Automatic annotation (TrEMBL):
SMART domains: HTH_GNTR, UTRA. NCBIfam families: his_ut_repres (TIGR02018). Residues 1-24 are annotated as: Disordered. SUPFAM superfamilies: Chorismate lyase-like (SSF64288), Winged helix' DNA-binding domain (SSF46785). Keywords: DNA-binding, Transcription, Transcription regulation. This is Histidine utilization repressor. CDD domains: WHTH_GntR. One of its GO terms (biological process) is L-histidine metabolic process. Residues 25-93 form the HTH gntR-type domain. One of its GO terms (molecular function) is DNA-binding transcription factor activity. The keyword Transmembrane helix does not apply. InterPro entries: Bact_HTH_transcr_reg (IPR050679), Chorismate_lyase_/UTRA_dom_sf (IPR028978), His_ut_repres (IPR010248), Tscrpt_reg_HTH_GntR (IPR000524), UTRA (IPR011663), WH-like_DNA-bd_sf (IPR036388), WH_DNA-bd_sf (IPR036390). It comes from the Bacteria.
Amino acid sequence: MTINGQLERAEEHSSGTRTTPGKAMPAYEQIKRYVIARIEEGVWKPGGLIPSEAELVKEFGVARMTVSRALRELTTERVLTRVQGSGTYVAPQRYESTVLEIRNIADEITARGHRHSARVLTLEASDDPLALDALVLAHGPVFHSRIVHNEESEPIQYEDRYVNPRVFPDYLNQDFTVETPNHYMVRLAPIQRAEFRIYAQKPTAHVRRHLMMEIGEPCLMLWRRTWVGEQVATSVQLWHPASRFHLAGNV
């Protein structure tokens, strides 16, 4: 099968439809879909080594930086794991379930009859290369916020968010102790689509300290990207102490 045929097959497997004529998908995104299709079809197994960058460059006939970006983004999204000096591996299998809606944490807390408060730790411009990749931007700066959300006096969520300044140019001028980032962004520009993953993992010492957790206590971490129109609007990690948080929904 030709490379174009492989990419088209991967795209069909991933989305169920082909790209709309006239809207060519970037090569790195096509490679990402191809890799995901190999994993979903069981061709590449969890924990298994995938072809090297050099092999993928030769196979697809694209620049090395294109392959590198595809693998780097899949690593950020925890689909792949890259080991220095060893290679790139399929990440260990994790089981996913669907979260039906994106809700504002302040509204959730209020609905329980409790008081929400927020403490802003960081509100800044950033040139973090992983954030640029996540927001699909060639250069920075992007906007970055870190906020701890409390229910009554107890911290229940650590929010680490990167925001596309082209979509929300006044983000750094907001008072997020009064209005949450989620509420602010949805009020200005409703979300068109989102992707997310949920992980059970140990927090960093920084996150653990701000969530007032015991050493060794696990977190539920939700990673999410949202789109406004054709642009990635925000990429966020939401950390929750497992002992104080659960997911629920109705169909």
